[in-house]
Amino acid sequence: MTDYEFHPLCLAFPAMTAGAYAKRLADYRKHPERADDTVVLLAADEEDAGKLKILDGRHHYRICKELGYECGFETVAGDRDELADIAESRGINRRHQSETQIAAALVALNAFRHGGDRKSEAVKNQAAPVPLDPAKPKKSKGKTQSEAAKTSGVSERTIRSAGVAAKAEPDLLPAMRDGKIDAKTAEKVAKLPAATRKKVAGAKDPKKAATAALKKAKEEKASGAQDVSGASQSPKAPEEDPENPPADQRFMPNAAEAVALADSFKNLVSRLRAARTDLRKCFPDESHLKHRLALRINFGEFDAQLSDLIETLDRNLPECVCPPCCGTGTEGGKDCKYCDGYGIVDRHHHDGLKAKWKHTRPRLLELRGGA
């Protein structure tokens, strides 16, 4: 079989886990006819003298090559937009990809559409193309974050976080793509000094390294603030954020329930993360994806599903007042369409609506005055 390299667009998506790959390899070995099930797509890499590379079907190709099977190939042609669209349609709906992994792929695909940096270390190390700002298309029509969110089913907030993180530190993109760090945490890391960002992205466990770096930054900030203010001054009450006012149970019917749910979700997320860590520790030397027993019970897929659950719960914490209805759940005498009449939304939805506060704040003040 002819040897082919992987196209940069193919590498925008995460590789199959060791457990899933071993399972599919065993299936192909038992059923050789699987070699005829999938056609491997080839496309020219314009940055490599038009060399044909695998655009889609890399795992099918790898397995067939390993087992000595022949597989079918099809060459597709197109400009950057067209090839990126093909890669997206083929890879975006595959199972066991978290929202962050899909968002990272979308950012990488959009970067390719715009002619992103193909010479960076991240790309040389077979990572996805380094992204430009997805909100500022240059040579190509590309996709806005809103369009990408609608076609992928991933929240615009997650895509925006992935873009911000990857723009600040390109090496965070492959870490997000491979599920080693979530977009929300990566965006926080993007605000840290360049050397710290680079260290987190290159760590064996970027998520753990990020947690430690962010904790250290928070402690240093608190220590600096204390040094400046002096111990003799009494602390001032925090000023209200005009774009994120606190919930008021006097006229927000679901405020108390939302607070309780948010606390429960946070507690559950914490326990699930601890459980995931404990499960991984069951296998020696961090071999939870390569250990024989892990492969036999397909632990990799279970680990990915658990990570998806953790990210979903963490992303949907009901902790912000809905700006259009001021937390009342009603707008114009009807259930508020933005929060489905609940009055409280998650931070992603709030960030997309907070600009409305400049129009609805008078109503919030009126509600407070009459409560």
Quick rundown:
By secondary structure, the protein is mainly alpha-helical.
Tell me what the structure shows.
With 371 residues, this protein is mainly alpha-helical. It has two domains: 190 residues, no CATH class; 116 residues, no CATH class. Helix content is 51%, strand content 7%. It contains 16 helices and seven strands. The strands form three sheets. Strands 2-1-3 form a three-stranded mixed sheet. Strand 1 and strand 2 form a beta hairpin. Helix 3 packs antiparallel against helix 4 and helix 7 runs parallel beside helix 9. The chain is elongated.
Largest sheet: 3 strands, mixed
Number of helices: 16
Instruction: Give the overall shape, derived from the CA principal axes.
Output: elongated
Global Rg: 24 Å
Structural class: mainly alpha
Give the mean pLDDT.
Answer: 83
The proportion of strand residues reads 5-15%
Quote the distance from N terminus to C terminus: 76 Å
Order of helices and strands: HEEHEHHHHHHHHHHHHEEEEHH
Q: How are the strands ordered across the major sheet?
A: 2-1-3
Q: How much helical structure, as a percent, in the residues? A: 40-55%
